[in-house]
Amino acid sequence: MLMRTDPFREFDRLTQQLFGATTGTWSKPAAMPMDAYRSGDEFVVCFDLPGIEPDAIELDVERNVLTVKAERRPAATGDNVQMQIAERPLGVFSRQLFLGDTLVTDDIKADYDAGVLTLRIPIAEKAKPRRIAIGSGSGTQRTEIEA
Question: What residue stretches are annotated with the SHSP domain (predicted)?
């Protein structure tokens, strides 16, 4: 259904935790944490995007590649604002997922609630389980097997 293509993502995340938090010099923003699972006839992907406005999220699908882009903007802006502590990463976050051919990318539904972006991707008919009838050599007995 979903193919992971970045084997170094966990290594990058660990490196950021070890060095980025203590030195403050890590330039790559944290990845969008996600969960992905199959629920009935759809594939569900949830991204944690706290503090991001819905209009700052972009979803694009090109062939089998789903791109999620989100921008966290500064909460406090203006001439009278003096930032005292700035630990939350700002800027553009992006993540690409390579979707299998068994998913229908034309009918993706997206919902954003409480900082969680939820995508529901239907599973194609050809990927759903089906029963196949098997005939016997004499032609009198038929058995169905779930494939």
Answer: 25-137
